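Incident review: delayed structure delivery

Summary: a single-chain prediction request sat in the queue longer than the usual turnaround. Root cause was a stuck worker, restarted by the on-call engineer. No data loss occurred. The affected request and its eventual output are reproduced below so the record is complete for anyone auditing the incident later.

Affected input:
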Amino acid sequence: MLKYYLLVGTGGAVGSVLRFMISNMMYNSVENHSFPWATLMVNLLGSFVIGFFAGMGHSGLMNINYNLLFISGLLGGFTTFSAFSMESLHMLQMQQFTILFAYIACSLIGGIALAYGGLMAIKSII
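Output delivered after worker restart:
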């Protein structure tokens, strides 16, 4: 079990550093900073990569160790949007449209609302 924690932790550390590096590169190369280009790019890239890795896993090309290192660890540190995308894709494939739209709405509205709540909480503490 310790091995699994180390795989996820190692992947997560690498994913976090990659996200930081890409975000900095995007920020420095884009003139319009009013749109979150870096976050969009990282999330879209993460979505593509999780689909790629999931496909490898379904094809038997990835064992549990690689799954933990790359999907749970690397992409977990890189972005959680990739998990959101994969879950949404699964619901779409299963034709669970009502659940899919509720999930999307709750994720987007809830995420923004909680981000605002966190911002207000820290402002009230400081």
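Verification: Helices lie at 2-29, 37-58, 64-78, 81-93, 97-125.
Action items: add queue-age alerting; document worker restart procedure.
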